[in-house]
Fold this protein.
Amino acid sequence: MDALMLARVQFALTAGSHFLFVALTLGLATLVAVTQTRATVSGSVVHARMTRFWGQLYVINYAVGIVTGLVMEFQFGLNWGGMSTMVGGVFGAPLAMETIIAFFVESTFLGLWIFGWDRLNRWAHLALIWVVTLTAYFSAYFILVANGWLQRPVGYEMAGGTARLTDLGALMTNPPAVLAFFHVLFGGLLTAGFFMAGVSAYHLLRRTADVEFFRRSMRIGLLTVILSVGPVVTFGGMQYQDLQPTKSGSAERVAAQVAEFTARFGPGDYTPPALSEAGMITMVMMWLLMGNIALIALVKLPFGTWLVRGRVFHVLMIASVPLPYIAMLSGWVFREVGRQPWMVYGVLKTEDALSDVGPGLMTASFTAFTSLFAVLIAVNVWLLARYARRGPQAARLGAAPAPEPAAPALTATF
């Protein structure tokens, strides 16, 4: 395998893996914030316990996901030096904003939320989780602004062989970024809804003692699925109007675009690989499955006893947890592979964006990055499964520290 293919596969694996963390983080942060709001306003003990339990799973996923994000961004400098040189002045701007938001603001407020439990005023503590949630949204938005520019470059000019930003507004309101943001946002809620419903179903299937806890959690998860599946499909469909002609267009449009690229850049294969279409088909199939499950949930939701006693339904929800992940990865394949052979559509070819590195160095980089991400994913899955199985009784987030043992009394002898 040559250096270009290794670099592409490496970025596909690392970016796709990181996105799995991001989706659950976005959705679960929102549900934790909503749950804590209910607990703070009403004083509900059950919702307070739910906040601690689901918040602990959120923190685990966030902590491991941050590591994958840091590792992934190293690749722009290591493997894609040509891209950094030519278009870094535009592409790097939203990435810099995302770094400030995610690694400074979001992580700072999350730390205050984690360690401020029972130390801060309850309203101040509630405000912290909402700040964390909103900054997570902003972080996702800036990432999609950068990616949207790769799909449809706007607001720039070429000067001396490098791209220079000329219109920040056009960059920030680029339709492939804005529509993708709402698509990803509701996709994250869908992921968190299936996750919460699946974990709750596991405990209800086992007849866990905390029936009311997981019945309420199941309702929240299913309601999130029902409310999210429609917007996900809507914002996904709206993006088709801005797809590249070579990805989804009539034969005439494809031929015209290929002719234009041939005239500008020379002969080459300017049509996307078949893998892109396979990704689209898989994505649509997953959304259809999730839509049907949402309809079943809509029927089940008003009947609380069915949520508790429906063992077949419990198995269905447990088995459905991977569906949004498969849909997101296949959608990402459709979006990114369908842009090939371009790194920046119509501006910079992927082969020209590669750093000047040989196959040997790229193989070592590929092996190191892939191994690291495999370990991080395995650790995250293990931790989530372990603490999810233990249930709310074992949640340590926000728990009061254990009292220190009393010092033994000293007996004076005379």
Notes: Residues 148 and 164 are 16 Å apart (CA to CA). Strands lie at 156-159, 162-165, 342-344, 348-349. The chain is about 75% helix and 5% strand. The first helix runs from residue 3 to 42.
